[in-house]
Amino acid sequence: MFTGIVREKGRVVSFDGGRLVVESGITAEIGDSVAVDGVCLTLAGSENGHLAFDVMVETLDRVKPFGSEVNLEPALRAGEPLGGHYVQGHVDGVGTVRSVEPEGDGTRVWIDARPDLLRYLVEKGSITVEGVSLTVADLDAAGFAVALVQHTLAVTTLGGLATGNPVNLEADVLAKYVERLLPGLRSAE
Fold first, then answer.
1. Which parts of the chain fold into alpha helices (H)?
2. What integer pLDDT is reported at residue 184 of this predicted model?
3. What pTM was estimated for this model as a whole?
4. 93-179 is a CATH 2.70.50.60 domain
5. What is the CATH number of domain 8-74?
6. Which of 8, 3, 70 is nearest to 36 (CA)?
């Protein structure tokens, strides 16, 4: 489990044959989970500031390609503060940046997504974009908007977003559970 509060930007050193190697200051043990651009990966090796992950074909079929920089977050440990929202690291789909516009001291980003993902979003609800916990600022039939503050733009890869970029998306897991439970609740009435 993660919170969507990115700890650092890592630099991709290599990605060859399913082995992703990222330069990082994060301390983790082999077998630990680390979210990489919102994708929960298991640490397979760690040496000299490099984290290595084995990425399965199943994962590659569901997420956008890893860029030269990635957002990193180690798994939440018992007793740590939950600063974002419950994030599993299970990407629901890939969205496309529709627009990036300055807004006050921050930036408003519109992202288009599939209808089967949009059904889980509500204004002022939670969404994870590239592993970053964000609040849905607005919705329309094709996508949603998020408002990014300067801190988020500086410490995550979201500061480099441009129109047309693909982004990993994970909807709030609580909305998925509610949807799954609703038919059972209705039949119990």
1. 57-60, 115-118, 150-155, 173-188
2. 62
3. 0.93
4. no
5. 2.40.30.20
6. 70
